[in-house]
Specification:
4 domains; five-stranded antiparallel beta sheet; disordered N terminus
């Protein structure tokens, strides 16, 4: 005994675990050195019923202390291990009874100095030779024990100096329970919990028989130095020195770990701050770079103008010395360009004379039959996470070894109209309570919970209920309804209306709630109810999972503004029969909740979701927005049909209209899409809803341009004398088909290269789009040419379009029909645009826009918030709003270890655990250090550790039975986040063996194998947007890498051992770690074939190809810049639009036709050639691309899906307008300055 040499007296006063209700009988006792007040056992405390352990109480016996030796002394030292021999008269029965102290000591054993301080106090009270000087017996009763009636002690006072009491309390204040992450003191301070616990309250709870462990009442009196009032004469308060938590113990115990003792923590440098914004010259670095770039571009342009004009050019800086030259002087590039044009023209001229409608139909039908095997991918994981991606492999590994993360069905309930209360409690002081925390609302929530729990579904010809699919961690086989994991506030009452309505609550549920929220691990509270705080399924419900929206410090749960009701279901593979059962149960769950919400008597305002809700809402809005797409296609069709007509006379309107030609163009697009989908269905590549929505729109935009170019060129052409209609069509086709081939081939090659993307949705989209564009071109060159030939024959015969038997007398004019757009652009637009001063202004404006967009591009937001996937008015939008507002903890994050780490060695366990003797930089300690800086690590609650649980289980100080026998083996169970984490261990009959951490057990030995996998669960901080989810993933991976490097240094660790973080959302947000470089790669892949094809089809014209490429790059950069201005985030959906629409689709259509038209013009000067290209091809591009896309895009503004509104309406509108501006304004000006010269022979 500390401070007492060789004597000791035993009175079986078991402390913290030795207490309960008593009868008051005062007795006078003397207080002298060397005397005991009681000793030995005299039977049960007759006043206690329902204690967790037998309430054995000591005999009242004032006598001299006697020496204790032999076996009794050895057993005493197991509990009161203070090193020296003691004097005590006792017997085996009284010494064994003191072992009950170990039940409470087990909670503190992680910190030896704390556990020793705790045990030392109670050993002083029961074993000190001067016991009568520190205690005063206040209540005794007569008890007949073993046929003899004797006085027993049922209450006494213990006097302690505050120096010892405060020191002991401080040494235990931060000791944690690994399985929960909470403080051990919270379970040992009754209703006060960790926050309100004080030394006096801590000791009071230990001495209160209502805690279920104490066999008698102890009134602890904490005496300040010099205080004499209230201290009986002869009483000397115990003044021993309490060990600090960072001190070793006299019995050889090590200092407490950092997790349990702040004083033991190493001095760590603060974590590095996240990198700040890029800065140059004291301001935004990207802004400085953009300004410098703009100045350089302007200076270079001005320098070019100056040099060009000094070389003797006219006012437009065009060479005035143009002359007719000899053929031998024609450059190689010019000869190649003319040869390529002549070759392609001859090829397509011959092609155009064949009628191949039947052949085209057979080919389309052949491919289309593959649609019988089409598979639609709706699983978001399959859509956005590549099978070989790191997050996907980690998910597969986790699901293989631990099963998929359970399905969550949740309600967040509030009562905003109710006033709060201030509750003045003698126990807690003044407490603020929100209006939500009231008895009637808890009862109403319980009734709703029970209604949902008994939800029965009819599926697969059988009746299924919650117990068939629920997550039941403690009884996964043959689960009952009460085994299902349901987290809610009524679980503090075991979902019992009787417990809530019990009279002993005195009508004030708030007091009970406060007690539960402070001590969720208590098996018996200290109110009159004596209820357990554990849920009915056997696990604790932590307050941060039951309530939300509390203000102030993290555990002021009485301020909660929301109840959280969560039903967890097993997550079965989609091929499992029970998957459909779970879906059906969730469907009924949603129906019950929606009916409850529509009930006018409901007192809650709430939001809700089921695991199936995201996919359901996406599919619902897709189906609802199909009419919008149909209307969009119809608008485009009507425009094409009307705009292609010639309309030379009102009498010939029905003859000159092109309704059937427009319909034929639409059918060509539809057939190309069907052929593409059928082909890929044949070979087993699944489709998706994105493909069904976007590919037809894209192909229609691309195909309509080709249709306009071809039809307008035919209408503007005059048939030569003696030329047949088919020959004319073939000749016209020979003129324009190379341009159509240039665009279609560029787009198709680009899309095929886009299939190199790692994102499944982008990859499959690129494959479907590439083949669809290619098929569209082939069908246009065959089927559409045939349709146009048939329509031309009808028109030549003056037959009405829809009434072929009806003819009109008015003959067709022999003059070419230029329409109104070509003369307008030739006479007004082109001259104004290519005016000397206007060209200079255009260059300045577009160079400024490019530089500004480059700056904005570096500030674009990366990510896709999940609420954007929901349609407007969806109940999921309310749920996300409630989730971000009220939940105070984020998603769980598991740190998973792979096979290859040896847990059986002391060194191996020390590298993982966090209790006494563990490495200061073990796995759990590193996670704890990260949790100390949640604003940077995004770890809100440190990890649970089954290794620490296992060590505690092995600890000889823990007598709680956790070993269950099944045949020849033993199964170790340990609760860790609701899962069984133990292994099967062989039974051993050998003598006591040495275990890791130098822990001994007799007879039964447990050995940890080289586990295939293990996991340790922590919690993220609340994450509210994709940027935070992405940052949390990155920080968790950095932390896991650091942990891995540390554990690889342990002897016996496999070189390929790894620790990785797993969160259920990782597969969705991993793409944003690499989407910027991947986007640059994909766009570059698209730009390269565009440049190459342009150069090849123009006869190795590098200059035209380069100008074409530069303009497309500018369109792409400007698009991203405007995305920043309009709040469009950069993500996979945006990348699809940028690659398919901006960098390839629309841009190529706007730019490549114009570039080729300029390159093949034979006008003498750059400006005249630019004017010709702008008027002739620009009018066709404007009518065919801009005016085809804009009406269809504007219709999409009425879609319900936010994704369609943002990424298909806004983004496509931006791309179309920018493409039109660059193709019809900037490109003609650039060509007039830098375009290729053409030497006329």
């Amino acid at each position: 005994m500390r401070g007492h040499s060789n004597t000791s007296c035993h009175c079986s006063c078991m402390v913290m675990q030795i207490l309960f209700h008593t009868v008051q009988v005062l007795s006078q006792a003397e207080h002298r050195a060397g005397y005991c007040a009681f000793y030995e056992e005299c039977g049960r405390n007759p006043s206690l019923e329902g204690a967790l352990i037998p309430p054995i109480v000591p005999c009242r016996n004032y006598s001299r202390a006697r020496e204790l030796t032999g076996e009794h002394y050895r057993k005493l030292k197991e509990v009161c291990s203070h090193g020296k021999k003691v004097q005590l008269i006792s017997n085996k029965r009284t010494i064994v009874s003191l072992n009950i102290l170990t039940l409470s000591k087990a909670l503190l054993v992680r910190c030896p100095s704390c556990a020793e301080n705790f045990a030392h106090l109670h050993c002083i009270n029961t074993c000190s030779p001067n016991q009568s000087q520190t205690v005063k017996v206040t209540k005794v009763m007569n008890v007949t024990h073993l046929g003899k009636t004797r006085e027993v002690v049922v209450e006494y006072q213990a006097y302690l100096a505050t120096s010892f009491a405060d020191g002991a309390f401080q040494s235990c204040q931060n000791v944690r329970i690994p399985a929960t992450g909470g403080f051990a003191i919270a379970t040992m301070c009754g209703r006060y919990g960790a926050k309100l616990c004080t030394p006096q309250r801590w000791y009071d709870f230990q001495g209160d028989t209502s805690n279920g462990l104490a066999p008698l009442d102890i009134d602890f009196r904490l005496i300040k130095p010099g205080e004499v009032e209230g201290v009986p004469e002869g009483v000397i308060p115990y003044k021993g020195r309490a060990l600090k938590c960072n001190e070793t113990t006299p019995s050889g115990g090590q200092v407490c770990s950092c997790q349990d003792c702040k004083e033991s923590c190493p001095v760590l440098p603060p974590p590095p701050l996240p990198p700040g914004p890029f800065r140059l010259l004291g301001t935004d670095g990207f802004l400085v770079i953009s300004i410098i770039l703009f100045c350089l571009l302007i200076f270079s342009f001005l320098f070019f103008l100056l040099v060009s004009c000094l070389k003797g050019k006219d006012q437009n800086c065009n060479d005035v010395s143009q002359r007719v030259i000899h053929p031998a002087e024609v450059s190689c590039a010019d000869r190649n360009s003319m040869a390529a044009q002549a070759f392609l023209s001859s090829v397509f001229q011959k092609w155009g004379t064949f009628m191949v409608l039947l052949v085209s139909a057979v080919v389309v039908l052949g491919f289309g039959t593959g649609l019988m095997f089409i598979e639609l991918t709706t699983d978001p994981v399959e859509l956005w996470s590549a099978p070989n991606s790191r997050a996907r492999q980690e998910k597969d590994f986790h699901d293989k070894h631990f099963g998929p993360f359970f399905r969550t069905n949740q309600l967040i309930l509030t009562a905003p109209g109710r006033k709060g209360h201030i509750y003045d409690s003698l126990l807690f002081g003044t407490q603020n309570f929100s209006g939500l925390v009231s008895k009637d609302l808890v009862i109403e929530m319980l009734l709703l919970q029970k209604k949902i729990q008994v939800n029965v579904t009819e599926d697969l010809n059988r009746t299924a209920s919650l117990k068939d699919v629920c997550f039941a961690p403690l009884n996964p086989n043959n689960s009952a309804l009460t085994d299902c994991a349901v987290n809610s506030l009524p679980q503090y009452f075991q979902n019992s209306l009787d417990n809530i309505n019990a009279k002993r609550v005195l009508g004030d549920i708030r007091l009970l709630f406060c007690a539960f929220s402070s001590s969720p691990l208590s098996f018996k509270d200290i109110t009159d109810l004596g209820l357990s705080c554990m849920a009915d399924y056997g696990a604790p419900v932590f307050p941060f999972l039951a309530v939300g929206g509390y203000r102030g410090e993290c555990d002021e749960y009485t301020n909660a503004e929301a109840f959280i009701l969560t039903f967890s279901l097993n997550n079965y593979p989609r091929t499992n029969v029970k998957y459909n059962v779970a879906l059906q149960w969730e469907k009924e769950f949603l129906k019950i909740v929606q009916d409850y919400q529509s009930n006018p008597t409901t007192n809650f305002t709430f939001a809700y979701m089921a695991e199936r809700s995201l996919e359901d809402e996406i599919n619902r809005t897709t189906a609802e927005d199909i009419p919008i797409f149909m209307i969009s296609y119809a608008v485009i069709f009507v425009y094409i049909a009307v705009a292609l007509g010639e309309y030379s006379s009102w009498r010939r309107i029905l003859v000159d209209s092109k309704f059937l030609v427009g319909l034929g163009g639409i059918l060509v697009v539809a057939c190309s899409v069907l052929a593409s989908m059928g082909f890929y269905s044949w070979i087993g590549i699944p489709s998706s809803l994105v493909i069904l929505q976007v590919v037809p729109f894209l192909v229609l935009a691309v195909g309509a341009d080709n249709i306009f170019i071809f039809v307008l060129e035919y209408q503007r052409d005059v048939r030569k004398p003696g030329e047949e209609r088919e020959q004319q069509i073939g000749r016209v086709l020979g003129n324009v088909a190379p341009s159509m081939l240039l665009c279609s081939l560029s787009e198709s090659v680009c899309f095929f290269l886009g299939a190199l993307s790692t994102m499944p949705a982008v990859k499959t989209f690129a494959l479907y789009a590439a083949l669809a564009v290619l098929m569209d071109f082939v069908l246009q060159m065959t089927a559409f040419v045939a349709l146009l030939s048939l329509d031309a024959r009808r028109q030549d015969n003056n037959r009405c379009e829809l009434l072929c038997c009806v003819t009109v007398a008015t003959q067709k004019s022999n003059q070419p029909n230029e329409g109104f757009l070509l003369p307008l652009m030739r006479k007004y637009y082109a001259p104004v645009l290519l005016n000397r001063y206007m060209r200079f202004i255009v260059m300045l404006v577009f160079l400024f826009m490019f530089s500004a967009s480059l700056y904005l591009m570096f500030n674009v937001t990366v990510g896709l918030d999940q609420e954007l996937a929901m349609p407007k008015g969806s109940y999921m939008l309310d749920y996300f709003q409630y989730l971000y507002k009220y939940l105070e903890v984020g998603v769980p994050v598991y740190f998973v270890t792979k096979r290859g780490f040896n847990f059986t060695t002391e060194e191996g366990m020390n590298a993982v655990c966090s209790s006494v003797g563990c490495d200061q930089f073990s796995m759990i300690q590193k996670i704890q250090y990260a949790a100390n800086h949640p604003e940077q690590s995004y770890i809100g609650i440190s990890a649970n550790s089954w290794v620490d649980d296992f060590i505690d289980w092995l600890n000889p100080g823990s007598r709680c039975c956790r070993l269950y026998s099944f045949g020849p083996n033993h199964i170790l169970y340990s609760y860790d986040s609701g899962e069984i984490i133990g292994e099967t261990f062989q039974k051993s009959d050998s003598s006591p063996q040495r275990f890791p951490k130098e822990i001994h057990r007799t007879r039964d030995a447990a050995f940890l194998p080289m586990r295939a996998a293990s996991r340790f669960m922590a919690y993220h901080t609340p994450l509210t947007n994709s940027q935070e989810f992405t940052a949390a993933l990155l920080r968790a991976r950095e932390l896991a890498y650091d942990i891995t490097q540390g554990m690889l240094k342990i002897n016996g660790t496999s070189p390929d051992f790894e620790v990785f973080p797993y969160t259920v959302t990782n597969v969705f947000y991993e793409q944003y770690l690499t989407i910027v470089p991947e986007g640059l790669f994909n766009i570059s892949l698209c730009l390269l074939p565009t440049f190459v094809v342009c150069c090849l089809l123009l006869g190795l014209d590098l200059r035209s190809g380069l100008l074409n490429l530069i303009t497309i790059i500018m369109i792409t950069v400007d698009t991203v810049g405007f995305m920043t201005l309009w709040g469009i985030h950069y993500n996979a959906v945006a990348l699809i639009n940028l690659v398919t629409v901006s960098a390839v689709g629309i841009s190529v259509e706007f730019v490549s036709h114009m570039t080729r038209s300029f390159a093949l013009s034979i006008k003498p000067t750059h400006v005249e050639r630019a004017k010709e290209a702008t008027a002739n091809m620009g009018s066709a591009v404007f009518a065919g691309v801009a005016m085809t896309n804009l009406p269809g895009i504007l219709v999409l503004a009425f879609a319900k899906a936010q994704l369609i509104q943002i990424f298909f309406f806004r983004l496509n509108l931006v791309i179309t307008l920018l493409g039109m501006a660059h193709g019809l304004i900037f490109l003609p000006v650039v060509l007039s300055y830098f375009g290729k010269c053409f030497c006329q022979q």
